[in-house]
Design goal:
heterodimer; A: 432 residues; Rossmann fold; 2 domains; 16 helices; B: mainly alpha; flat
């Protein structure tokens, strides 16, 4: 790879994870069984601060990851190389900037070899994007439910007849599905035959260019969601909002933080405050559109572009361990507990909408991080009243008094201030 | 210190670029054929060659070895 020109250039641009070869004597040979004799070489990489998976990304993130994949493939092809696979799990993020991490995927392209990873590209990148762009179907549950992605046939069934005229559908979905079914019983090695028939690299290059045009042109057109307009009418007077921002800034001011989670991040306003003092803030929200907007703002040159990682995560239903022996994809905690959690205007949603007991919410927060900035919204508040509107009020444990009791059970409250007439903020440190 | 410096030690056979791309993925016969279809004229040329070769393979073989002289009268 060092011999090519695109590879070092892409590393310098940050599009491929920074990697350097390590001489065998320097490598931790003692930690790996049968080293040196068995492995071809060692690489040291720049660390990715927090691993994320495509079923946590928003539409724009999956789209940009696909474009990165295709662009690197095109550059590799121009120099006689290829990427052996095409999966979003090969892309990670430095904040909101994508970086390709599977250096091992690069290889020389033997003459006559077709693009082996084309089907994988469709199943893991293209079809999820098409389903969201054309049908408004969220791709995250599909990818979380199937590690290998969406098969062509399934995509075909989910798309409508009307969609057949749209870019990418007739060829990559419908034809793909038909040809796959038709050649399923192929006895010969089609790959070998293609090689003998003189499959040309230019065919791959044209296909890649065509797919790039299709992917780049996709748009997710959802205009509104319940929470994407939350930022516009937060139920705050300006002075109250200023007080809340100040409280969060002061809580974080004491030190530098390595990893912060902002739960229920919405517009990312408080993630931005945290990012000024942190290496990385993971901004999580269960609302796909809110995360999409946050991502687009960051991508467009927003401040802290490399320090805020937006993710679509429902903390009441977080991503589980997936794959073989539950070890291929990890839970959030397994990937790295934060030092501090922002839990602003979220507890009432968890307690009332999601029916979670307040003591368990506090236990989960204590299990997550040592430091906590949390906001309690009282029953008198307009937001809570709205949540309780059509429900039987069985939420006896959701009172200010009980909340504080539970909080004090696991945390020591370092500072507390009212944020408004009905809301109170707490900065706390876990006990024990 | 070691832990901090040695973040991920990844063994990569491909770094030394073997001659063939070991494809661990099943490319899917249909997917490979589709690449020809979207390939325009160039793809069509390959399709022709592909089926020509299949056709030839079906014919009763006239030679026992590829480089032997064709039989008289062929």
């Amino acid at each position: 790879m060092q011999a090519t020109s695109f590879f070092p250039r892409a590393i310098a641009e940050g599009r491929i994870v920074v990697s350097e070869e390590v001489a065998v004597p320097d490598a931790p040979a003692a930690e790996l069984p049968g080293t040196a004799a068995y492995w071809e070489g060692f690489l040291r990489h720049q660390r990715i601060p927090f691993v994320s998976y495509p079923y946590e990304w928003c539409f724009g993130m999956l789209q940009d990851a696909a474009l990165l994949q295709l662009d690197l493939l095109a550059e590799a092809l121009a120099e006689g190389c290829v990427l052996r696979d095409a999966t979003p799990y090969n892309v990670q993020w430095r904040g909101a900037v994508p970086t390709f991490i599977d250096v091992g995927s690069f290889a020389r392209l033997p003459p006559g070899e077709p693009w082996v990873a084309y089907r994988q590209f469709c199943e893991l990148f293209l079809f999820p994007l098409l389903l969201t762009a054309y049908r408004g179907v969220a791709f995250q549950p599909l990818l979380r439910g199937a590690l290998d992605g969406v098969p062509a046939e399934q995509c075909r069934r989910l798309l409508g007849l009307r969609d057949r005229l749209r870019p990418g559908v007739l060829v990559d979905v419908v034809l793909h599905s038909s040809l796959s079914a038709a050649s399923a019983d192929a006895k010969k090695s089609v790959r070998g035959e293609l090689r003998a028939a003189g499959f040309d690299r230019k065919l791959i290059e044209r296909n890649v260019a065509r797919l790039r045009r299709i992917v780049a042109g996709l748009r997710w057109g959802q205009e509104r969601s319940t929470w994407s307009e939350y930022g516009d009418s937060p139920g705050y007077a300006d002075a109250d909002r200023e007080a809340k921002r100040r409280f969060v800034a002061e809580a974080l001011a004491g030190r530098d933080w390595r990893l912060v989670w902002d739960l229920g991040s919405n517009t990312g306003e408080y993630a931005a405050i945290a990012a000024a003092r942190s290496e990385l803030v993971v901004a999580m929200d269960s609302d796909h559109l809110a995360i999409e907007r946050l991502y687009r703002r960051l991508r467009a040159g927003g401040e802290h572009r490399e320090r805020i990682l937006p993710l679509v995560v429902d903390v009441a239903d977080p991503p589980p361990a997936l794959g073989w022996r539950g070890g291929e994809r990890q839970t959030l905690h397994e990937r790295g507990r934060p030092e501090l959690v922002l839990c602003l205007a979220l507890v009432h949603h968890l307690a009332i909408t999601r029916h979670l007991p307040v003591d368990e919410i506090v236990d989960w927060l204590a299990d997550t991080a040592e430091h906590l900035v949390i906001e309690h919204v009282d029953r008198g508040d307009e937001m809570v009243t709205r949540l309780l509107r059509d429900k039987d009020d069985a939420y006896d444990d959701y009172t200010r008094a009980n909340f504080e009791t539970q909080l004090e059970r696991r945390f020591e409250v370092l500072r507390s201030e009212p944020a408004s007439a009905t809301r109170r903020l707490y900065f706390a440190r876990r006990r024990g | 210190m070691r832990l901090r410096r040695i973040l991920v030690a990844t063994a990569l056979a491909v770094l030394l670029l073997p001659r063939t791309a070991h494809a661990y993925l099943d490319p899917g016969s249909g997917s490979m054929l589709l690449q020809l279809i979207v390939g325009g004229a160039a793809g069509a040329a390959v399709v022709v060659r592909l089926f020509w070769r299949r056709l030839i393979a079906l014919l009763p073989s006239r030679r026992r070895e590829p480089d032997s002289a064709p039989p008289d009268g062929a």
